[in-house]
Amino acid sequence: MAFGSKQTTAEVDTALVRSLQKVEAGQPLLQVRDLTVTVHARKGDYDVIHGVGFDVRTGEILGVVGESGCGKSLTMSAVMRLLPSNLETTGGTIAYRGVDLARLPERDMEVMRGGDLSMVFQDPMTALDPLYTVGSQMLETIERHLDKHGQEAREVAVDYLRRVGLSEPEKRMDQYPFELSGGMRQRVIIAIALCCNPSLLICDEPTTALDVTIQAKVLDLVRDLQRQMGNSVVFISHNMGVIATLCDRVIVMYGGRIVERGTVDDIFYRTTHPYTTGLLACMPTLEGPREEPLVPIPGMVPDPRKMPLGCPFAPRCPHCMKVCRQQVPPEFDLGGDHACTCWLCAARGTSGKLLQTPAVAGPLQKEAPHA
Amino acid sequence: MPSTNDAAPLLEVTGLAKAFPMRVGRHKQKVPVVEGFSLYMQRGESVGLVGESGCGKTTVGRTICGLYERDGGTVRIDGHEVGASREDEALVHKTIQMVFQDPYTSLDPRKTIADILAEPLKVQRLAPKDQWRELAGKAVESVGLKRDCLDRYPFSLSGGQRQRIAIARALICDPQLVICDEAVSALDVSVQAQVLNMLADLQAKTDVAYLFISHDLAVVRHLCSRIVVMYLGRIVEEASTDELFSHPRHPYVEALLSAVPEPDPQRARAKRRVELEGELPPLTDLPQGCIFSTRCPFATKECLAARPQLEECAPGHRVACTRWRDLQLKGTDELVEAIAAPAAPAAES
What we know:
The complex is a heterodimer of chains A (371) and B (349).
Chain A: H1 9-19, E1 28-39, E2 46-57, E3 61-65, H2 72-80, E4 87-96, E5 99-100, H3 106-112, E6 117-120, H4 134-146, H5 150-163, H6 169-173, H7 182-194, E7 200-204, H8 212-229, E8 232-237, H9 240-246, E9 249-254, E10 257-263, H10 264-269, H11 274-281, E11 332-333, E12 339-340, H12 343-347, H13 363-367
Parallel strand pairs in A: 3-8, 3-9, 6-7, 7-8
Antiparallel strand pairs in A: 1-2, 1-4, 4-5, 9-10, 10-12, 11-12
Chain B: E1 11-24, E2 27-41, E3 46-50, H1 57-64, E4 72-77, E5 80-81, H2 86-95, E6 96-99, H3 113-123, H4 132-142, H5 159-171, E7 177-181, H6 189-206, E8 209-214, H7 217-223, E9 226-231, E10 234-240, H8 241-246, H9 251-259, H10 265-270, H11 301-305, E11 311-314, E12 317-319, H12 332-337
Helix pairs in contact in B: 3-4, 3-5, 4-5
């Protein structure tokens, strides 16, 4: 707790919670604008997230997809203010129910985090503390955020363990993480994330470390609980199958930027960005002929320190044009929720009106001429 | 393609067993991790070995290539039974090579790529010293890398490049069988596709056989012509890929197929899930009778009575289930069509 502060935790809680605006269903709960994240390194700073903007609406599941190193997890860590110490949010706003999380004092952020906003991490083996029982880890969150104690808090915890489908929740409360399997641990983590009834749940690849049958159960669980409680979920995954199964809307990220966004049908059936097309084409599927070679995306994800000058995807893009290597494309509106950050949209003369002015290349990008 | 070949199979494994010492309560005892595993492989064939974590698929791979000593069963290479003698060990190493899951730990960080690739040549005395570099150069080219990476160290390569080096190291001594243990699981989808295509190309060129161990059914379907499914250390079903995906005979396999997420929203919405009850039982306390009986939606009293053996239900299709004749299990396409459009969940736009 901060020194010399006169307010008690409970007072901070209520003052902050009262200042949160009510959001109607379908309206944006979280509005991120121009989010920029910078890495402070010995050899000079460089950006890893370049002006990302997106909305999360009430009661929807938003998928975030892309290869590793494209900035999906970093963007969400920035929203939760959980960036590693050498990374910093250097620009943009994160408006959550009228409060800008990027500028919230850490003490207030602690009230939000775990209470109204919560997060499920990728690896269920390391996200729980091995020295404490499942129950004490759940109670920690409940006592901090719900102001419930003793038997009352325990009842909430048991109730949520039951909701996530764990057998014998009373017994689980007194077990240690090592006594549970991977799937059960991930359920416990989801229970901890949900027990304060957060309006926004961020899941960072929660099923990547799990087997398919358990993955399917966790996906069902996330969707069922989301329907029951009507909260919003951001689901980060690199697996297009998981995205197609679970999400309402999708954003595709590449090189620290959003390259395409839209409803799940837009992304899968009206695919516009060559990167999204590439992601879909290189996945082996369960249908169709199986001996045809896959169509891989050539090359690799660019190093954030050596970002190409124009479009980050240009060096790997089969449709790369001259302009792509010179200027970062703006976002083109394709109607409805569908938008794509690609010069092809301009070349094709799609309905496209510009959604934002073309981004100006930063100083670091000027230093690094493209290949 | 696999077919009835009169010649001795490249690899013939019968009744393979492996147990590891584990602590059960207060006592240490040997717990069987793999039991009664049998497999035939022809030259140039790709066989997939799938199952969930802890089902013993990695143990099978490692036991076959001699990284673990086997506790029972026989391994024959080209009809020659492999014993414990030095010559036999050399034969195994010459015929079978392995590619491991994690390209970050399977390459020695203190050796250059050229040294890493020369190691098998050195150990197996396949070529004189002055040819090592030339052969290593050819090997990196065969996996789609440039020769100039020979003098680099593993840390300067990306995950996909490292896995290519691991594959080049396995192929440099011209093995007849490469055991790929989750060889593409740690890679991103676009890189995974590059490596899968490369594996298929190399097979077309060299006629090498792959035993492809993976938990990813879509990857296995793409690469392999035959699939073996394991559950708790035992084979539950074995069939050609098309047969397994269209007509699974074991309830576990149906559940597995139903759990694979489809990268297509319409198919994903229409897909029926076969739910499995409960958790994987511990190896120290295996169920009586059929090992799947504790979670099987179709289990009856008979299933608890005796452990079903693998039996042939169609040519080349073996299943370890007593009830396969009565069950109408669904393949991937049927699972999707089971409930068509109406149940599409709210796709808000």
